[in-house]
Write a structure and sequence with these properties.
Layout lengths: L6 E6 L9 H12 E3 L3 E7 L6 H4 L4 E7 L9 E5 H5 L14 H10 L6 E7 L12 H20 L4 E3 L19
Helix pairs in contact: 1-5
């Protein structure tokens, strides 16, 4: 890959809302198992609104991972490209999950700083309600989503290597809470 290319893999979702944590879970899994070359980063942004815009401006490639409302069984993956994402209608942001993705892409496009290549790897959730664990179906889909992200990275010429010593993903939100006396 050219040293000048900038690629971001961004996980989105609320880790306190069950399957909505799929994006952050995938990012933690990627960072635990793989090393990325300079210019490639994998980050969890939680539930951004228009504050997503500065994170995407100036990138060559943007790969997003999030839950998506779509027909199909829980855990099934969907792949969306930039043109489909930008066709979404703007609507008021009424929940903490509404990422304002179409608005952020449009704003970046208006400033000529939108990534040329944008892909969303979506996972159909089973439940997005209060809780800190993924449903079994979405948990099983994490590996497929990781594979899909690695495929997208390699398609745009990024070098991805397995870590010589993989670590356990830091899924801190699933850890039991401890109280200090």
């Amino acid at each position: 890959m050219s040293a000048n290319l900038r690629i971001a893999v961004i996980g989105m979702g609320n880790v306190l809302m069950g399957d909505d944590a799929a994006g952050p879970y995938v990012i933690e899994t990627l960072n635990a198992r793989f090393q990325f070359e300079y210019g490639v980063e994998a980050i969890d942004l939680g539930t951004p609104g228009l504050d997503l815009t500065p994170h995407i401006m100036g990138l060559d490639t943007l790969i997003l991972v999030d839950t998506v409302l779509s027909d199909g069984p829980p855990g099934e993956l969907r792949r969306y490209e930039k043109s489909a994402l930008m066709r979404q209608t703007f609507r008021p942001r009424i929940s903490p999950h509404d990422p304002a993705l179409a608005e952020a892409l449009t704003l970046a496009e208006l400033t000529s700083a939108c990534p040329r290549r944008v892909v969303l790897i979506g996972i159909i959730p089973e439940k997005c309600k209060k809780g800190t664990t993924l449903s079994p179906a979405v948990h099983r889909a994490v590996g497929d989503a990781v594979d899909a992200v690695i495929h997208e990275l390699r398609e745009c010429g990024a070098e991805v290597r397995f870590r010589s010593e993989p670590r356990r993903p830091n899924i801190w939100w699933e850890e039991p809470a401890s109280c200090m006396s």
